[in-house]
Every structure is written in structure tokens, then in C-alpha cells.
Amino acid sequence: MYELAPPAVYAHESVMTNPRYRARVQRVVDACSVKRDIVAFRDEDVPGLVERAGLLGKRVAMGTLDSVADPILMFHTFRFEPDGLASAKALQARLEAAGQRGGIAETLSGQGAFRWAGYNQAGDKAGHDKVCRPCWRIHLQEGCVHRCLYCGLGGLLVGMVNVEEYCVHLRALIDAHPWQKTYLLDDDADPPGLEPELGVLGPLIEFFGTLENRYLVIHTKTWNTAWMRDLKHNGHTIVVWSLSGPTQSSAIEPKAGTTEQRIEAARLAQEAGYPIRYKFKPIVPVKTWREDAARTIETVFQRTKPDIISLCGFMWMDVDEMKRRLAPVADILDPEFLAAAEAARDEVRDTRTKPFPPAMRARLYDHYLAEIRKHDPGVPVSLSTENFQMWRAFERKLGMSATNYVCGCGPQCVPGIKRLVDHPFRVAVRASAAVPGVLMAREED
Ligand code: SF4
User: Fold this and answer.
1) How many other CB atoms are there within 10 angstroms of residue 18's CB atom?
2) Which atom of ligand 1 is nearest to the CA of 220?
3) Which of the listed residues 70, 145, 148 should we mutate to test ligand 1's pocket, taking the one with most ligand atoms within 8 A of CB?
4) What pLDDT is attached to residue 432?
5) Of 28, 35, 90, 250, which has the fewest CB atoms closer than 10 Å, so is most exposed?
């Protein structure tokens, strides 16, 4: 696992009283470079941990902090109770009343193992502006060790350890949704960070290895895949790297794998039989973005053979928020892109794809696509998390449309797929009433 010096380690009583779960936590603690006692907690202790022990004190965009440390580690178990959400809602209300961010209350309450992402379905307010497909997302962690400046998922990493019980409920969810072929794990974490010591991801990979035509998707910036080689994965875990050029990976994503390390981790995974994909996401326009892209893509094709590549420019915040988060690296950002973002405040006001205007994002995508095509004329290349207007502009160049493209984590994107056959918004029918431990639609990136 990563070298970590957590400021504190907490474990819920449901972890401490189960020898298998406790052993998982102990292995992680023993592997840390700073030794910490495991502090047991109960549900009623959580508000105090937040309000008095500063559990969420560093849960802000990491680029806004003077210095970034490793996260507090907290271990818990998921609960699979039909009415379990009530306790999470009560905790959320209490945290928000105390001026804290309440969104993590579900996880701190042992809820939210499986979440419905109702993209482009009735009630999705962002439906006009984001082409993602409706699906179930699955979770085992919340929080991350990678310290990306633009991200707010540092400060606290909550890991769930009852993976055997989890797989029983996941099986019920999967059986109830025959149209969903892939399951993205942890879009609010980077799953391999505590492995193999934690010993949770391996059992999940091997569980998917037993299924027919169902796949786990692990989306990561990690270097840490050597331990995955001997698992019985059966080709049913797809590993998707968020990849960035050397300037971005070293200056902006400092504890993630470097560009070289991520590609080497992908090579190792591919050699072990895992399907691999890449997302250039988010593409931060640093001054050297053109040559960084060319060099990275060349290395990708020298060492690996990806199944699909997706592209996504830096987005989801306005220009002021971007400047706040990337302040420590302001001098390496491309001034032309910065000026375009400043000038486009009105143009991008109503879109989630801000701060860069469409013409500048298209410039990124055109360059990346041209570099990829120098090495591979056939690998599917798609736009990730973009809007319908940008997709219309790129349909012809990509040979796919907003409703039939394939991507790293789409719910129908099985290994080897080149185009979707069924309309992804119409085929997705939620049938969760009989599956406990699930949440209603939640906005997820
Ligand atoms: S790898 Fe992802 S989750 Fe982790 S800090 Fe970076 S952006 Fe956040």
C-alpha cells in the first residue's frame, strides 16, 4: 500500500468486535510509517468526532491548504437495513446545522453501499448538460490519499471492511438489473490506496470473477497494481487509469502515480489479464500541455494496448474557484487558456463544463485525438462527462454519438465493445425496491 502517516485511526465498534474486520484494519495500521492506536467509536460518537476532534477539518479542496497531510483513516461496516437512511439523514442535518459539510453523513452512518445515479432520467436537473448514462454506482471507500490540488476528497478516508456481506447484497442488485453490465466502484475514492493490506478489493475482484458477463470497473491514478496479479479475476475487472502528462501528474496530483508509474501499473495489469482503459481526465491546460500529451500518448502505445480512451477537459467549477484551487501552481498554467476562461464567464455561466469555453476544450480534444490517431487508428476515443453540444461537434471525428459512444465506465461498456447497441437512457430501468442498502438518485461525477 502507499506510505502513509495518518493523523489518527478510528474504527467503528462493528469493526472492532469482528476478528476478520479488525485484522484488516490492523494490517493497514501496521503498514503505516507512523504508528497510531486504533480508536474505537460508536454511532453516537460521530458528531463529537466531527465537532470536537476535527474529523472533517481538512475536507476541503487540497490546493487551498497551506500544506496537505495524509488523511485520517476511519474504518466502518455497511449496514443493509431497509430504513437505514433515516439515521444518515439525521446526522446530515446535525452536521449541516453545525456548519459542516453533511454529504459524508451517509458514509459515516454505514449507508450508501449502492447509489443510483439517475443521469438523463426524469428529475435530472443537469440532464441537458451531461451525457452520462443512468446506472448503479457501488462504493467501498470515501476519501483518497493522492492529494490532487483540485480535489476535496482528502483529510479523511473512510473504508468499509465487510466486503463478504456486501457481495451478497451486491449480487441481489446485479440480478435485479440485467441491463447493467459494468459497475463503477468508488467515484469518490481511489480504491487501491490501502491494498493489499486492507484485503477488501481483492475479494470484490474475485467476486466479479465468478459472474457471467458482469464487470467491475476500478477507476484510479495508482501505481499500486502488482498485488492484483495473482487474483482470480477472470478478466471481469476493468482497470481505468485517469492519466495526465508529466507536468500535471507531478505538480498537481503529487501523491498519485507519476505518468510513467501509472502506465507501468497499467502494463502490469494488462499482462495479468485485466482489460485496461485510460481517461485523460481532467486535462489541466498547463503551459506544456501539447508536448506532455504527445509524450504521454506515445508511452501509452509503446507499453500498453488500451481498450478505450476518453477525454475530459478540466471542468465543474467557475474560473474563480479554479484559480483558488490551483493557486499553488498558477505559474505553470497556460495563460491563453486562463484568459479565455476569464473572458468566457458569461458564455459558460449555465453549464457544468465551465470554466473553459467550448472552443478551448475542443482545442484540447483535437490535439489529444490527433496524437492518439498517430499510434492507433482504431481504438475508440470518446468524450467523458461532456455536454451534448460538444458531442455534436465531435460526432464525425469520433465516429460515435452522445447516445452510442463507449467510454471507460459506462454501464454497458463491456471489454472489447466498439459502439452501444441499445439507447443507454431507455434501457436503464431501476428495480431496487427489494434490495436494501440503496440510495435514491444522487449527483455523482
Ligand atoms: S485521485 Fe481522484 S479522488 Fe484522489 S485526490 Fe485525486 S482527484 Fe481526488
Assistant:
1) 14
2) 1
3) 148
4) 60
5) 35
